[in-house]
Amino acid sequence: MTSKKKTQSYEFGGVPGACAMVCGLPLTVFGLNLICNSKSCSIFLIPDQLPPLSDFFNWTSVYIFFGWFAFQAVIAALPIGQVHLGLPLKNGQRLPYRCNAFIAFVLSVCGFFVLIYQGYDPSVVYENFLPLASIATVFSYVMSCYLYLRSHTVPENELAEGGNSGYIIYDYFIGRELNPRLGPWDLKFFCELRPGLIGWVMLDLCFCAEAYKQQGEVPAALALVTFFHAFYVADALWFEEAILTTMDIVHDGFGLMLAFGDLAWVPFLYCLQARFCLEHPQSWSTPALFVILLMHLVGYTIFRKSNSQKNQFRKNPDDVSVKHLQTLTTVSGRKLLTSGWWGMCRHPNYLGDLLMALSWSLPSGANLLPYFYPIYFLGLLVHRFSRDDHNCQKKYGADWVKYCKLVPYKIFPYIY
Length: 416
Ligand code: NDP
Known about the structure:
The chain folds into two domains: 13-282, no CATH class; 284-416, no CATH class. The chain is 60% helix and 4% strand. The longest helix has 30 residues, at 286-315. The protein has helices at residues 14-35, 59-77, 101-117, 123-127, 129-150, 168-174, 187-193, 195-215, 220-238, 247-250, 256-270, 272-279, 286-315, 341-344, 348-361, 372-396, 398-406; strands at 82-85, 96-99, 181-182, 185-186, 327-329, 335-337. Strand 5 and strand 6 (335-337) form a beta hairpin. It is mainly alpha-helical. It contains 17 helices and six strands. The strands form three sheets. It has a two-stranded antiparallel ribbon with strand order 1-2. Strands 3-4 form a two-stranded antiparallel ribbon. A two-stranded antiparallel sheet has the order 5-6. Residues 246-247, 303, 307, 310, 313-314, 336-337, 342, 347, 349-350, 353, 384, 388, 391-392 line the site of NADPH dihydro-nicotinamide-adenine-dinucleotide phosphate. The chain crosses the membrane at residues 12-36, 56-78, 99-117, 129-149, 220-239, 254-272, 284-303, 368-386. Keywords: Cholesterol biosynthesis, Cholesterol metabolism, Lipid biosynthesis, Lipid metabolism, Membrane, NADP, Oxidoreductase, Steroid biosynthesis, Steroid metabolism, Sterol biosynthesis, Sterol metabolism, Transmembrane, Transmembrane helix.
């Protein structure tokens, strides 16, 4: 089925930007993981030669990756957990989503400890880190080809506005089809929260097990980073339903950007701090760790409270928890919060997320590379902010300008 080209404005630098991302994203994942290795972790000590190709592939990793993927897919298809409806689509339909990702998380963590109890050695994951990253990368590129091809078989109104430019590489990267579904699985929804996100915590846990094996204990810094990551993921999965109103689900098609991000970028880059703390143990005083923990708690409180406040307001503006807040009523009748967390700045949830991101890196001490995540995340959220701002400007027109005057700060109150 052919479709009219709809994409009006281009993101990520248009076609050249998409080409750069398609080639550059894996280079970043592998580059950082190769530079930050067990011997050194510094941009001034780049290994002078690449490991042999055999270090990037083996069958054990293929079995682990697909076994893990299948395990998550089976849980996602089980008729347990509540079914929630997504936001209305262009055709007025609301898709059902089975939310049981938190159960998947609990089963995965329990499964990890059961396997250890039964004598399985989690070192196999640590030792195969690079080949596992390779399989995840190859799989996300191949799956994106499938997604791109199948997007030509669906009706026009099932395509994402942003990924329908007619330029193959651009649409392949951004994603054409909004909600690709296969049997019981919504592919985007499944990949967003399960194999990569829970996989990230599994990698951290394997690093803890490796530390215990090598050093007879799990260093406090590594335990703290693992706790932060696990807490963040558990929180996202506990509030799984909230993802149904995010840009990724509502606005973006499913293409390489999300597939690679979900399956390779998140698990194999976000665990860098934990791997660093395993391979380069840091000694910290208890009060210092306590300050880091406090920073995480402050970040989490801002992140969770602001996200929940907006979700509650969108679900039911008359709920007692949000009824007292000041609002701006737009021409469309839809209201925008102008007090509470959302009166402090236009994206308080990003502020909280950034504070947490920083607290994940602090246990790595004064080493630059483990700070990749908060630095990159700042760039991502500033870019995401401008994408969302642009979308809201289109949606609300002059009312959005009025709203921006009422809430002038973007992410950091009194600063930006
Ligand atoms: P948001 O949850 O911030 O949602 C943005 C939408 O909220 C807008 O499009 C608008 O939609 C609505 N909105 C904006 N201002 C107001 C207001 N004043 N009152 C009511 N509604 C308003 O979007 P994201 O998906 O970007 O972020 C969700 C969370 O995910 C954040 O906490 C973010 O930090 C996190 N995140 C994490 C990433 C990671 O890699 N760890 C990556 C990306 C995001 P409408 O008016 O149509 O409802």
